[in-house]
Protein 1
Amino acid sequence: QMNFTGDQVLRVLAKDEKQLSLLRDLEGLKPQKVDFWRAPARPSLPVDMRVPFSELKDIKAYLESHGLAYSIMIKDIQVLLDEEREAMAKSRR
Amino acid sequence: LERSTSSFSYSSYHTLEEIYSWIDNFVTEHSDMVSKIQIGSSFENRSILVLKFSTGGSQRPAIWIDAGIHSREWITHATGIWTAKKIVSEYGKDPVLTDILKAMDIFIELVTNPDGFAFTHSMNRLWRKNKSTRPGIFCIGVDLNRNWKSGFGGNGSNANPCSETYHGPSPQSEPEVAAIVDFITTHGNFKALISIHSYSQMLMYPYGKSLEPVSNEKELYYLAKDAVKALHEVHGIHYIFGSISTTLYLASGITVDWAYDSGIKYAFSFELRDTGRYGFLLPATQIIPTAQETWMAILTIMEHTLKHPY
């Protein structure tokens, strides 16, 4: 079972098309690192992306340096996964 | 494993084995209306199962509902299971559903990507694609919602096998997609198709492959409007709606475009909850409310299909 301890999901609100393409560039800059849960679509829609713990510092620096406003939607994915597995085990019992 | 569906928890997530065991119990308990059809086998040779709801007749006009084409979207399988149970419990009580089933059949594919779904339980909870591998290709899996013939390989899909939206080597190269294509094409009388995804609370219709409106776009727009209104009235959840390319983004090789281009005029794609706290990790406590509201939208679409034969 892959472990996602420390991985976070960042919610980014791109102001315009230019900022959206900066986000799309991330897929090329960090191949197989950034996992878009809600892919860059249009300025009115948020972009949610899962970032591995090891990449957090780089990615946040990239967002800040390009003036991309973001919030932390999920602080530690593994915490939610543990809760989900516990709920399944409890239900099974 | 459960001995009957009565002890099955509809407000919990389940493994593939538990779902397939539930299917067998469910079919046994409702054999007057429900049957199980294996439409093919997945890349890793798991059965691909469809539930058929029919009150008689043969080759009746039909409605297709699929869930779980992206395996990490667990809320979709859970919603599909609850919906199946709802159909058998409401038949004979709900006049709209009863009229639908007196004239049409309903087919539900609960786990459209069984290999990926099993993988989310065993190894990687956030796996999206199927598990196909090919000689010389380093990354595993194809995005099954980019592998359909309509617009294959266009904008909004990726030729890079390591991408999450990798379209695969050719249209319908994936057994999970080919099985549905063969089944729906052979049946030849499907009138509506609903493909259930998560998350972002949207109800969308073709096209994804281009900005060009479909011929009955106005009809689909107002039907989607009615459906999201019915959904909102249950728990107050807001959905946006419209064509995929104008509401979300360009996406090529997708299920609903293939369905529409194959003559199924009422083709819709749901993006269920989450509102933006949990994403794909929607807590199990939200399964029932999500299924309840989705049911009202699905019923709206099915009723429209019944009343507008073509």
Note: Chain A touches chain B through 31 residues (CB under 8 Å).
Protein 2
Amino acid sequence: SEVAQLYTNHWAVRIAGGPQQADQIAAKYGYRNLGQIGSLDDHYHFHHSRVVRRAVYSLKGPHSFIHMDPKVDWAQQQVVKPRVKR
Amino acid sequence: YAQSDPNIIHFNDPKWSNMWYIHCNDKSHQCRSEMNIMAAWQRGYTGKNVVVTILDDGIERNHPDLAQNYDHLASYDVNGNDHDPTPRYDSRSENVHGTRCAGEVAAAANNSHCIVGIAYNAHIGGIRMLDGDVTDIVEAKSLGIRPDYIHIYSASWGPKDDGKTVDGPGPLTKQAFEQGIKKGRRGLGSIFVWASGNGGRQGDHCSCDGYTSSIYTISISSTTENGNKPWYLEACSSIMATTYSSGEFNERKLVTTDVWQRCTDGHTGTSVSAPIVAGIIALALEANLLLTWRDVQHLLVKTSRPVHLKADDWKTNAAGYRVSHLYGFGLVDAEAMVLEATKWRTVPPQHICTQRPERRTRHIHVGQSLNSSITASGCSEEPEQHVDYLEHVVVKVLIVHPRRGDLEINLISPSGTRSQLLAKRLFDSSNEGFRNWEFMTVHFWGERAAGTWSLEIIDSPSRLRNPEVLGNLKEWTLTLYGTSQNPYQHFSVQHVPSRMLEIPTPEEILEEPELQKEEEEDEEYSGERFLKKKFGLYEGQCHSECGDQGCDGPDVAHCLNCVHFSLGSLKSGRTCVSHCPLGHYGDIASHRCRRCHKSCERCVGRSACVSCKRGLYLNTLNSSCINTCPPGYFADENQKQCLKCHDTCMTCLRFADRCTACREAYSLAGMTCVPECTNGTFFHLEDMTCSPCHSSCRTCTGPGKEECIQCAEGYLQQEWRCVQDCTPGYFSGEAAGLPHKMCHRCEENCLSCSGPGTTCTKCKAGYSLISRTCIVNASCNNADEVFCEMVKSNRLCERKFYRQFCCRTCLMNG
């Protein structure tokens, strides 16, 4: 049987226009912008403290509207990826 | 078998004699053909200035074997979002993995502690990222940390090795890999080394792990001391090479560093193999820092050897490489790697050619095999995509199937080499099929790309299934990676041009004898043509470039003098031009095009070059063209000029900030010159300056009192910090290899003591001090005279293990 996905309260978001634009969009939907993801330009790490830290469903709420914002090219709620040490 | 090495190096590290996979001086065992690590050391390569990091659960940066080579610039804590990758200590020792891997790469040598790393002078860092929820963001961040500083990323983890998981990098992590190989190491490409997997016992196949089967990772498997397949080994076609790792109970293990400043020879699995190869690549990079990420893969393919590794699937591909699904191209050879690296010339650019079959949807009938083929041209019609000589080959499939584990997939190259992309997986009952899953093989390396490729899919049910539900191959594509030229012979065309092309090499340009001076001589413009003019043989219109003396014909070559410049000689014929061509400059006084110095492409006087011929660089200090820039300058390939290195560099390569030696007061860290911080200071990451250590530290990695490497005068090291006096429960003593004293822990149950062993002066509650030993406050009801005599005659109370063994009762009873 397939293992259920575990959804976290972290999002990866692609926004053009620089960190200030990303900060504005994060604030608009209640997220905190934790900064650029590694060396990937225009990709930001957002965190939402009012979303359950781990859930088996992707819970909807006002924060979900970020996916429809025209300034957001792409957004993805992060799921836990089970990883094992070898 | 290898000969025992009479010139063996000896180190004083206590586990050195157990490191059989590095040296061969143990007379009680036969010596195996080994990885030739010591031979690489004897050639002077120990990993100096190469930066390796371990993506894992953290590393114990204060470990005596790691502290010397620990590099905080190569470290980060993604889980805690700070710069300290120290693992989280818990009673179950869950986070020992990264420290164990790190020691294998860069444990310090000859420090009387534990082991010797493969690259024992390399910089070692740790990226703590497995001790928390791992997400696509966490992985992408980890793979993208300081890509211009860190050379090698080593990872020994992945999706579950349970034989039923098919998982790989998410979209961000895929981008991070791509960014790494394109931009990392200032364009040479980050090197990602990956452990192939531990799921052998579950019948797992590493093609179902998208990390180890990525073309961007170097996938490493393991073999036992005797060259057997270890029980944990996962086979697949993307494995590139192999190292020794732990085997069966009667075979020797590997030793490495462990948390709590310890060493271990515990079971390692495949995890230790990736850092061993990371260490060997570090030696190769020390030999040649300009190797690209693909050069490193070519080096491994060329130098790894099957030696005594046992597998029933060794085959020789059409390019002559021996390869297996268990071990890739075989056991790594460190000496061969460094030797090849020193003379290596970068392989031609990677081309990518994707081809599709004509027919798409096909049913996969139970118990039968489905064959689908592609006649590939290698994209010869597109020069930018043309692949003639193969490197990686990737097959992307969209397969719908009721039981994924029943599928076996093979790919057969035009040369007839068969590579198994997927073996049956008994535990995989998923009905998800493969949704655009990419299978990768290195088994066709060096073969030619053009011809017919066949994909073979076999469905053999391992348990009862509804025979009416068929699998379906909906789509597949073949992506060929490689080069349009022979990667090892392209220099004869590119850099040593044939005489037919008449393009001399830079050396030839600088060394060839003076060119003919025919047009340099100021001959009078007289002779046959003048006579023709004199006798008036031509009376038509002259060319507009002809001067006031007219011409003897209509063309520009018939002029008797020129308006602007004359070009050529009497022998070869002269012509008038408005501008002098490349390699010449216009001498206004004589209206002649004169030849520049042979090394110049353009000049304003014979030796005043403004641009240089191919392969030479303009030295702006004296306007000359040279093939090697002077110290402090580097050859800029775009401007074809010698440009100044960064202020802190003494010498640099290709870029101003890619330093190879530093000016005074700076030291080389990777390819960056950082200030040489004096004792009592450390290099501050954010400020890029030397900042003071805590007053208790002599040397340190950060400002905190727990970040000392060595203690200041008057201080002793106690656990993670430096203290003026040992706290109760510790006694002061010497420490091997350290300039200061250490506080050692007293014997168990002592509250205070005066030295090592049985020297307790105070005991914990519930214990009594008897003969300077703390003995539990309990008496034995069966400690009669005979029993106590036995305890006494065997001197049990002197042994730590038996100290609580009715000793108090017997001692009280005299």
Note: Strands of chain A lie at 7-15, 32-36, 43-47, 54-55, 72-79, 84-85.
Protein 3
Amino acid sequence: RPTEQTETADLPACDSLNPGNLQLVSELKNPSSSCSVDVSAMWWERAGTKEPCIITACEDVVSLWKPLNSLQWEKVHTWHFTEVPVLQIVPVPDVYNLICVALGSLEIREIRALLCSSGDESEKQVLLKSGDIKAVLGLTKRRLVSSTGNFCNQQIQIMSFAEDGSSKDEQLLMPPDETVLTFAEVQGTQEALLGTTTVNSIVIWNLKTGQLLKKVHIDDSYQASVCHRAYSEMGLLFVVLSYPCAKESQAFGSPVFQLLVINPKTARSVGVLLCSLPQGEAGRFLEGDVKDHIAAAVLTSGTIAIWDLLLGHCTALLPPVSDQSWSLVKWSGTDSHLLAGQKDGNIFIYR
Amino acid sequence: CSTADLGPISLNWFEELSSEAPP
């Protein structure tokens, strides 16, 4: 169907959604004077053993927490930032002894690697990249992609890490003639990378050769879309986008996520599913994360909403806890848990 | 959703586009 006929996901009423679908597993108390900005869960190697750890990021400190038992966590490392504030954690899959972070004020100015020296386990940080960084994403096979500059002087770079976390290799991808805003790796086609641009195109690269394979212009209904996930299946690309700038409409309500299908050969696309806010839920998309077929979003109302993209509707709503609005939501990279964060630094882990 | 609107589909799209695109 053409995009204007995009199927709208069912809009169940708020009170029919059961927050009991989410069970609280544990909580991390992180009293800090600065604002909580990100959370992530990753494997960390200590003394030859890999442990599922949680990373919390405030503006001036990043902490690594290891599990004491199934309910309690212990802070084992902290890295401090006095000059440039932390903006986000950049998880790099397949790396077990290094955390990447993006630093800056509103826009990314630096990407740093945080690690521990093997001898005394003391915290170290290494500057990987600086400049006018527009987007960054950790990729499988210990790689990191970043874009710097705008359409006329844009550089898209892949950085590879050695097993010990040291920076090993650099490669450039052919830049498109539009500024790249977000990246997404493609599940099902290992060496393909997607990017979204400021003028609503999706670009496709070959990561191995650096070639720019295709530019697909998508519907202009919603500007500045963010690409969360991409899946390659039966010759088609299925792309999950979110729309932080979308306005509410009579026909589609308040759109949060959209599943788009693209034929990369013909550069044609159609919207197949639009996930809007459940009826009665006010606000719009603030930030979100997608893992497999489950999408989670923090709404401006301070509530977290979760959609099952296979069922096509919202399956759970998590209202603010202790009168504190949610500000962060991430899926764990080590299990199926949901990490929900509040501005004061407290992190709640749900199953 | 009808895939007819998307045009002809190729299972080998990645290899085909890689052989057509400039190096």
Note: Chain B touches chain A at residues 1-3, 5-14, 16-18, 21-23 (CB under 8 Å).
Protein 4
Amino acid sequence: MNVFRLTGDIAHLLAIILLLMKIWKTRSCAGVSGKSQMMFALVFTTRYLDLITNFISLYNTTMKMIFIASSYGTLYLMFLKFRATYDSNHDTFRMEFLVVPVAGLSFLVNHDFSPLEILWTFSIYLESVAILPQLFMISKTGEAETITSHYLFALGSYRALYILNWVYRFYFEGFFDLIAVVAGCVQTVLYCDFFYLYITKVWKGKKLTLPA
Amino acid sequence: EICSMPKDEL
């Protein structure tokens, strides 16, 4: 464990808490992409299958359970409890355009052709593009609530911090996982446009609006 | 070298 990975995991946990807070306090999931949240739940489900079989540490097991529980909790809030506030008209990104190629790629490019490894690879590839429906939705509505922009900033920062963690582990532990690094870089690059808007607007107290 | 260590990362 190193400081980059720890802060990355905390940023990830913060993002999930911010989203749950936003939905619970505003009693609305307006501006949040249900499709991205469905893909995040799929990411955690396919990545943490070893939760039962492979104990690594109490921290690892606890965080995995929190991530799985909160992702399904978010789906419950969005599609059941506050379903009336779900903005399906603007959440129109075709998930199959992401899930199918990612599934195909995880069969072609992986470290080991075993079910658990292919599912892990699938979850890594899927996570790198899972935010696209959310970013697409913001581009369609042209704006995002401030707390939603904080959620996205924390979520984007988590994988950026993981890149620093992989640099650290490469030099100090000789650990290098090409699949995780490439997918992590793609994932972080997808946030660049949002990071620019967030830093130039939200940090100046303005609302996050996209140039028309 | 590429090594897929046990998945100790989240």
Note: Chain B touches chain A at residues 1-10 (CB under 8 Å).
